Amino acid sequence: MIKQTKMQTLHIGFDDTDSRKGMCTTYLAYKIVNDLKKSNVEFLDYPRLVRFNPNIPWKTRGNGAVGISIRVKDPEKIKKMVKNSVTKYSDIKNGANPGLVFLQDEIIPKFLFDLSEIALYKLIHRNSIKKYSKKDRLELFNLGNGQGLIGALGVIGYRFSDHTFELLSYRSKQKFGSKRVIEKNLVKKMQEKTSASTFNSYDPKNDQVLITPNGPDPVFYGIRGEDPKSVISASKMLSHDEKLDGYMVFKTNQGTGDHLKNEIDIEKFQPYTSGTIKGTVSSIPSIEKGGHVFFMINTKCKNIRCGVYKPTQITHIAKNLTIGDIVYLGGGVRKASRKYSRVFNIEFLHIKKLVNIKKLENPLCKKCKKHMKSEGTHQGFKCIRCGKTAHEKNSKIIPRQIKVGLYIPTTSAHRHLTRPKERLLKRNLPKRLSKNIQWIDTF
Question: Which DSSP string do the residues of 146-215 spell out, in sequence order?
Fold first, then answer.
């Protein structure tokens, strides 16, 4: 009798297989998973789509890496197949720098957890990850400059404290780069019917469909939601003339605000860092060209320049701040330019406390109900009707045009990781991979 080979755990991570001119790392995952299904592997979880620091300047679109965890009898065969797929589908000629990592072990080492945490909010230089190539049971493979290895390592070590799901549908190869056509009213109705379990499909303020990308990549549309059943069900409410290749559901950190859990180090205030700062408004906001609003806050005895941009549609809140207001901000540090020092680009604005704005005005005559007239410098005030006098102006509190509370951009200005209002109080517990859900399908 031939002895059965023991099943082994294999974690696969890959990133940066796309460019601004085409391809998509999730599409590569879709292709790989379809191949894996033919190889009699056991999937340990849904494919993971993890978005890392969105303020990295050379990212392509959402800075997402993909991870797949399986149990397999012949890991070397699978590794070879995945390497071939990464080499075949990566858009290297247009600047992709794919990174691929295999971890053949049930236990994920702590250093990968740590790397993953840092990659959410910080800039990590590719040279710093060379040391991982010498780690036991860890295999690294890359093309180009190896930039993709950071995300590939990070996605294996990523731990979900909250998660959502996204169904991504893929186009047939002959349709890549052509215009996507989907009926707006169907997307609106879909969002209305599924608003308790899906999010960011349509922006009513701007009358804009948000599920279809604009680039030449293979994705036709993506539906984000709280669980796999919800996004699959929502997708069936849409119809279109284009024949698609198929879809796959990813477990993801989109809509979790994951990148803003870090408190910005004000002393270093490093460019491209994501996180939060708290301080006191120290300048009157100014409106600059394009309708963008800038103001200073003082935090830890340092003044930081902050920017709120017109597309967010919360500039009307920012411009009504005044000196002394206390704010808690989330966003990213933009590098200095010739004209300006480093700026904190705001992704959310939480007003913690508003100061009273006082205005001095001439005293009111209680008898005549009219404001008195000044008698001249240091001469006091006098009612021109009854002759009653007063010595000082009155202090009047002016009602504020804004309130204490949280303000986030309009839906169409959200980043992939932005936590929408519908999810402010939601935290999803871990969900096991369900064999009863068709989380991947090829048409």
Answer: -THHHHHHHHHH---SS-EEEEEEEE-GGGTTSPP---HHHHHHHHHHHTTTEESSEETTTTEE-SS--S
